[in-house]
Write a structure and sequence with these properties.
alpha+beta, three-stranded antiparallel sheet, 13 helices
């Protein structure tokens, strides 16, 4: 019990602060030749598309804002899809704070807001819902109180100038990242929970027993960043992505107090797991061809697909159903 209390206090605010500002490694804001020769209309269209993508990433950052020792904004949104839509809409007008142009025509835009503004959006949204689906005013106010209310939080998105290599690479990069996130999700799910009982000693077992924790795993994966990408002349890419293990595990663990209603997984050795992975970086490497693509039209779109794929890959196959890829047996006359 002391270990569980210790973890709640230690992990409560970890994930939201794992990425507070744009990466320092981004290229300088100089305008490359491809930007200077592009027409104003093309530039405006690419920047607006990147800004919209950045707003979705900003929602993901807002989701990670804590509202208590074991709860964050995403837990609130999981309860109320209408309010979630209002939050997405409320952050859709975020103004760019930084714009980066890459040599291949890629455009990266960073937008920002504050916990106080997120809290204000939620307060207005909850005024429209029925009382039984509303949140206490103190809970909504905690969104701003759990962090520095006026400290900016960020989201970075990307698009590309039309008819450039960057435009061709955009969807392929996302497809490769989806595969890499699936690999990362599988690695997290296969981590051993020290002290777990027979047959219940993996994070995967816990996520199967507490389905809501799968969504919290997806939220943790929103912290994944691309470490490297190697492009071939045929338009394919080999990409390596990574994430710190502790913030991801904290999202999964903290779901237990809210969603493990039968208290089945209370003593599953989370202390040992979080201690052993304190400095761990989890990586995933994947390839995608020029014909592959992935859609990111909603917050956590890639991450949710990655978790779903990872969960399904670990389920036992139904041997009662024939494998459509298996060679057909010859029928004797």
């Amino acid at each position: 019990m002391r270990h569980n209390l210790y973890l709640v206090i230690l992990l409560a605010g970890t994930a939201v602060f794992a990425e507070e500002a744009p990466k320092a490694e981004e290229p300088a804001a100089a305008k490359p030749a491809i930007r200077l020769t592009a027409g104003d209309a093309a530039v405006k269209q690419a920047e607006e598309s990147a800004r919209k993508d950045a707003c979705l990433r900003l929602v993901e950052t807002a989701y990670r804002l804590p509202v208590g020792n074991n709860r964050d904004v995403y837990d609130m949104m999981m309860k109320n899809a209408v309010v979630d839509k209002d939050l997405i809409k409320g952050l859709a007008d975020a103004v760019p704070t930084k714009t980066i142009y890459l040599e291949d025509g890629t455009v990266r835009v960073t937008v920002s807001t504050t916990p106080a503004k997120v809290s204000a959006i939620l307060k207005k949204a909850y005024e429209k819902v029925d009382w039984d689906k509303a949140e206490e005013d103190s809970t909504i106010s905690a969104v701003a109180q759990g962090a520095k209310k006026d400290e900016p939080i960020f989201g970075t998105g990307e698009s590309a100038l039309a008819k450039t290599d960057g435009e061709k690479r955009l969807a392929v990069r996302r497809a490769a990242k989806l595969k890499a996130e699936t690999e990362i999700a599988n690695k997290v799910l296969d981590m051993v929970l020290g002290g777990g009982g027979a047959g219940h000693d993996l994070v995967r077992d816990y996520c199967l027993g507490v389905p809501e924790s799968q969504k919290k795993l997806a939220l943790g994966l929103s912290l994944v960043t691309i470490r490297s990408e190697d492009w071939d002349t045929d338009g394919s890419v080999e990409l390596t992505a990574e994430v710190a293990a502790k913030p991801v595990i904290s999202e999964i663990y903290l779901a237990r107090a809210l969603y493990d209603r039968k208290n089945k997984y209370a003593d599953w050795g989370w202390y040992q797991l979080t201690t052993s992975t304190k400095e761990m970086i989890v990586q995933g490497t994947a390839k995608a061809t020029a014909k592959e693509a992935a859609v990111v039209d909603l917050p956590l779109a890639l991450e949710t697909k990655a978790v779903d794929a990872a969960i399904k890959s670990g389920l036992p196959k139904d041997e009662s159903k024939p494998d459509p890829k298996a060679p057909k047996k010859a029928v004797k006359p």
